[in-house]
Here is the input.
Amino acid sequence: MAIRNVLLDSDDILRKISKPVEKITPTILTLLDDMLDTLESAEGVGLAAPQVGILRRIAVVRLPDEDILYELINPEIIETDGEQEKLEGCLSVNGIAGLVRRPVRVKVRALNRRLEPYEIEAKGLLAIALAHEIDHLDGVLYTDRAHKIMDTSSQEYKDYVAKEEREEDAEKRAKRRAMRAKRRVG
Ligand code: NI
Here is the structure.
């Protein structure tokens, strides 16, 4: 396992369309393992193969407070629902973040490392991460979709982050309240 170099958005490779994986080879397995190491070392939420210079339809996603790791081979969005607007960043784009509108819910079909198909029903940050990584496989960066870009050193950015944190806290409190209410009902 090894940490790979993450390409920056000035690199043309990030604009190319990745090819589907047709069979699992030792090279693909090493790539997956290296991508996990690279994601962890960069403290990112997701990483797509083109970001490490490999034009294959492979991505990995791991949410900060979830212990589930998603290995996605040939992933496809098969259903979407609603719209959310959140701040997004990318390991290949330094110093900025953008407000991007994405579906609130996505259903993704992908293959695991044994080429077995599976589906993910995702909401919130996971839905954003999956859509963002799948975009990378088609040469699309979030900066193409963002309707507002902010410098991460700006006050505006800090205010947005604080606002999103407050919203997350409110969501968590509402969930806890709902759980308590359920218990009371029996
Ligand atoms: Ni990215």
